Task: inverse folding
C-alpha cells in the first residue's frame, strides 16, 4: 500500500470538478514544463492534483442558505459582534497560487444575530474559489449585510500572496490588507475606530 497522506483528500467535494479532464490537463502540464509524468514520483500527481482542486475550489458549490441553515436568532442585542483572526486559505485567480491569512468580521445587530460558527464557514465558502482578496472581502460583507440586515458590517482581511513572494522582485507587496464596510461602520467614525481597536489589540504581524 502506498503511504500517502493525501489519500482522503477531496473525498466529499467531487461534484463540480471534471476529474478526468483535470487529470489529463495536469499530465499534459507536467510534460509541457519539461517533466516526465510517468516517472515514479509523478505517477499519481495528476490524479492527486485533480482531486485536490475539488477541495480547494469547493466554495463554488456551497450554498449560503445551507451554511446559515436556520442559525439566525432574533435577539435584543445591539452591541458589536466581532469574530477575529479567522484563518483562511484561498487561491489567487491570476496565478492559481495560494494567498492565505486571516479575516476579521464584525457587525452591529439590528434584532438578528447569526450563530458564531457560521461566520468562519462563510469566509471559507468565499476563500475556496479562485479569488482576488478585494472581492472576497466585499462578498463576505455583502452576504452578512443581506442576511442579517444589521446596522452595519465590517470586514478586514490580511493576506499573504505566494504569487508575490515566490516570484521574487515584489516581496514588499506580499502582505495586503483589504476592508469592506456597510452602514454604521462606514458612517460612524467611533464605531469604525472601536472595530479597528478591537482587531489590532494584541495582534501579531501576519506570518507564514
Ligand atoms: Zn496572483
Result:
Amino acid at each position: 500500500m502506498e503511504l500517502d497522506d493525501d489519500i482522503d483528500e477531496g473525498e466529499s467535494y467531487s461534484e463540480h470538478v471534471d476529474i478526468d479532464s483535470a487529470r489529463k490537463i495536469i499530465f499534459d502540464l507536467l510534460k509541457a514544463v519539461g517533466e516526465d509524468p510517468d516517472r515514479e514520483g509523478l505517477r499519481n500527481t495528476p490524479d492527486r492534483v485533480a482531486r485536490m482542486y475539488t477541495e480547494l475550489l469547493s466554495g463554488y458549490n456551497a450554498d449560503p442558505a445551507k451554511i446559515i441553515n436556520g442559525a439566525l436568532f432574533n435577539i435584543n442585542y445591539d452591541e458589536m459582534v466581532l469574530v477575529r483572526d479567522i484563518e483562511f486559505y484561498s487561491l489567487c485567480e491570476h496565478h492559481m497560487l495560494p494567498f492565505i491569512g486571516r479575516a476579521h468580521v464584525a457587525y452591529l445587530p439590528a434584532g438578528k444575530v447569526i450563530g458564531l460558527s457560521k461566520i468562519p464557514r462563510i469566509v471559507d465558502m468565499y476563500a475556496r474559489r479562485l479569488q482576488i482578496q478585494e472581492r472576497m472581502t466585499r462578498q463576505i460583507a455583502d452576504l452578512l449585510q443581506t442576511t442579517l440586515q444589521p446596522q452595519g458590517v465590517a470586514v478586514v482581511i490580511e493576506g499573504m500572496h505566494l504569487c508575490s513572494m515566490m516570484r521574487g522582485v515584489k516581496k514588499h507587496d506580499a502582505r495586503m490588507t483589504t476592508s469592506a464596510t456597510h452602514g454604521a461602520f462606514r458612517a460612524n467614525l467611533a464605531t469604525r475606530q472601536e472595530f479597528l481597536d478591537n482587531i489590532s489589540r494584541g495582534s501579531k504581524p501576519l506570518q507564514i
User: Anything to note?
Assistant: Residues 133-148 form the longest helix (16 residues). Confidence is low (pLDDT under 50) at residues 1-11. The helical segments are 19-32, 45-56, 64-68, 118-127, 133-148, 162-166, 184-187, 189-200. Residues 92, 94-95, 97, 161, 163 surround zinc ion (CB under 6 Å).
